Amino acid sequence: MEKINPAFLNHLSQMNQIKSQISENNLALIGSTQNNQIQFKDIMSQVLNNVNDHQKFASSKVTAIETGKSDDLVGAMIATQKASLSFSGLMEVRNKLVTAFEEIYKMPV
């Protein structure tokens, strides 16, 4: 039987923290909308802002390493990967939405 890598457990706990933050953000968004109606534009705006924040943070971490202000290479790589994954997820959602729109567009009236 193989032992579980401690780094894997660390990544798993980080993923659980991100999952709980996303759930909390969604609940906050639901509570902030009028009559508890969630609008698509609000959700997409929040997602785009989150992806943009991840990209800006990763960029600042890499810039700090390049200029010698920081030596946290691991933190910069993790931030870069997080930004990359969030952008990839956003592109997958966009592709699914485009496909759904194309299917609706092809429906006979």
From TrEMBL:
Source organism phylogeny: Bacteria, Pseudomonadati, Pseudomonadota, Gammaproteobacteria, Vibrionales
UniProt record similarity statement: Belongs to the FliE family.
PANTHER family: FLAGELLAR HOOK-BASAL BODY COMPLEX PROTEIN FLIE, PTHR34653
A Pfam family assignment: FliE
Extent of the signal sequence: none
Source organism of the structure: Paraphotobacterium marinum
Alphabetically ordered keywords of this record: Bacterial flagellum, Cell projection, Cilium, Flagellum
GO BP term, pick one: bacterial-type flagellum-dependent cell motility
GO cellular component, one term: bacterial-type flagellum basal body
Cell location: Bacterial flagellum basal body
Name of this protein: Flagellar hook-basal body complex protein FliE
Broad class of where this protein is predominantly found: other
Highest taxon of source: Bacteria
